[in-house]
Amino acid sequence: MLYGTLFIVCIYYILPLWVMVMTSLKGMPEIRVGNIFAPPVEITFEPWVKAWSEACTGLNCDGLSRGFWNSVRILVPSVILSIAVASVNGYALVNWRFKGADVFFTILIFGSFIPYQVMLYPIVILLREMGIYGTLSGLVLVHTIFGMPILTLLFRNYFSSLPEELFKAARVDGAGFWAIYFRIMLPMSMPIFVVAVILQVTGIWNDFLFGVVFTKPDIYPMTVQLNNIVNSVQGVKEYNVNMAATLLTGLVPLTIYFISGKLFVRGIAAGAVKG
Amino acid sequence: MHSISVKELTLNFGAVSVLKDLNLDVAEGEFIVLLGPSGCGKSTLLNCLAGLLDITDGEIWIKGKNVTWAEPSERGIGMVFQSYALYPQMTVRGNLSFGLKNARMPQAEIDKRVARAAEILQIGPLLDRKPGALSGGQRQRVAIGRALVRDVDVFLFDEPLSNLDAKLRSELRVEIKRLHSRLNNTMVYVTHDQIEALTLADRIAVMRGGIIQQLDAPQVIYNRPANLFVAGFIGSPAMNFLHGATVDGGRRFEAGGIGLSLEGYEGGAVGARPEVVLGLRPEHLEIVPGAEEGRTIPAVVELDEPMGADSLVWLKAGGAQMSVRVPVERRMARGAAVHLRVDMTKASLFDAATEQRI
Amino acid sequence: MADGARRNPLFRNLTAKLAAVPMVLTALVVFAGGTVWTVVYSFTSSKLLPKLKWVGLDQYERLWGASRWLVAIENLLIYGVLSLVLTISIGFMLAVLLDQKIRFEDTFRTIMLYPFALSFIVTGLVWQWLLNPEFGVPSVIKAMGWESFELDLLHDPKIVLYGLLVAGLWQGTGFVMCIMLAGLRGIDEDIWKACRVDGIPRWKTYLFVIVPMMRPVFITTLVIVASGIVKLYDLVVAQTSGGPGNASQVPAMYVYDYMFQAQNLGQGFAASSMMLVSVLIVLIPWAYLEFGGRKRG
Fold first, then answer.
1. Residues of B numbered 199-258 whose beta carbons fall under 8 angstroms of chain A's beta carbons: which are they?
2. Looking at chain A, which residue has its C-alpha nearest residue C167?
3. Key word Membrane present in the record (chain C) (predicted)?
């Protein structure tokens, strides 16, 4: 009874993935006549190839590959920068408390609940003033800013769980701010860095809104391009290509998810449990 | 020249005052123990000495230098922590040399110092292990070694033995004492364990509420506590207290129908006071069969607790519960009516209002 | 530095303060500053460019007179309440199911949580395909013999919201389940033992002992899920593009369109300020409970 319920629930969760894979492996004629749940009679990888290199977005027809590489170019610096900044924040907040630090932190946490829409336009202006509106660096900066609350919280909570005496001992040993950070804190914090990377890779890869607002079409991330391909109105809908494209976009976070397992769960819990 | 000199040190956390106008002079080579219940400010004071906490007001001098605002590493101190605070990712050798490397000391000198510390503490074979592979006692030795290699005149210990089990604790206690007699440097040692305090200290500073209540040699603290708090805090089982009054121009103590002559009290003439507290240590009372005028208190046995070396008898006397230390062979029957002979030369008398010793 | 001179407090821990500059700038300039800026400009007649030409509450009057905005708000309310109640109750029930010391717990959890790792865009597109009236689930049901079955969750303005809801639940319940499971695991085993000794049935224990004990977890989840719902945008864009017509519009979409498409900034600012207000309605009582209470306690 218990397992039965769970089994049925699981079908609900798995079915979309199943359908995605099946559809992406079928030819259009088979889709038109067949059942979406049925496995393909004749397996074809044509839709995948097409999604990757030929699908049209309305502007160009070089498939998702462009978006994929854009996303990679956005992802790598964003993940590194946001984690670097946030880990230093967390460390400073826990070990080098200065007046007003908690006020800024509180604003940061509350800021994470404010709808992004409220801050979009001021950021557009800021980026324009800095001359990086519509560029990769602009988007990287935006991801760093909006990743900051959750990551700072994550690191703050982790660092405050480390024994404070360790920090004191290092100070007596004459280590300064950066020496303690790099020599003592970093080597002890690898698990939380992994959690942060997982959180950021999935978060940034899945972003849509910032990609649309802060970049130009030729550097659109994969999610934006995917939406443009699938929801573009021209021509006949090629559902198999669409599903292949959708799967391709979901592949990166899914891979991270299945590899990381429990760490992903830990990242979620870290975000949910306030310190 | 004092090794450490604390002048009118005040520390506030927001509106809360943690240390109040505290003065403390430590002589060169002296072993000072800061003792008190948790929250009394003893660890806080140690952290101020180390420079790990910014003080609100006052001055701290170490070795004739004003270090009030100096960085911890510039103060010429070494520190040992309760949780050992060893860097888990470094080997023992790395732990010992981390501070020296930060001070940009030549490698040859570092090696020399590490070798010397390892020899003193007998941790030579452990040098290439990580802290995770060490036992509690070994870890604390390494932590002491980290202070040792700094070759400083002042050692600060923050409850260094609290995380160890009873047997190891007494072993390391002896070792710390041996270390002190060998190095002869100044040590400030924080603990809440009075045995550690009484065995190790040249002088004990008993603290409460951010104030040093009494600063004296262990024997003085034990025998002549300056106030009720110190009297009650030091000693296990605690000192017996009788609430009463001094009458007859201060020659007699009366409480709940009992009268004791104050003859022999080391405080001399105490005068007549309406409210006083007489403090008597369990070992300064003797159970005798018959009453002696002015020297005994009638009592009824409630319970006896054999403790191995000796035995503790709990009695009801003068309206209060009292304990008496007796030889273990002496068993007392419950309900037996006896008399307690008071050794007035070793008693303490406090003013009930000011709580100060008279 | 042994002169004992007190350094200027501004320069103590200077490195730490410098290292915190990005955080301070983000908090003050972007989060606080940006929010205030948007609210201020929502009282102007900014069109293509932001201009400080005051028009009072005009933008808000226009906003609340626009049928598209009213639909968006109504949708958000319906979707929000349903999604909140369903995600949390389903999430909790799943967590309870997984908490029964079952075998393959990790496998079940992995399956229920994987949608959360996906982009809303992916989720939206998958469900767009699944609910496709010609080839999707409805056609399969028809093919199985239920000829009269008609359910077009994407093109019928009356029920399009439920189409979004199915997709939203698919993605979000796993997340809530995970938090709830962590909460359940945080409860002292002795509570269970005590209830068993007292002979309280399991379901009663859950309802009257465990749920009240997990109040903080529920509240936190509620806040996180609710603030996520207000931001709802990607899913709608991908799954329905706000259609059919304006039937599945949401406020975030309205803001985006006015700010970046219709070049009517003032409208966009007013709409986003209203979004802010709606979040504050959720946030302020929570912050009061969470932090105000803690300070007193």
1. none
2. A16
3. yes
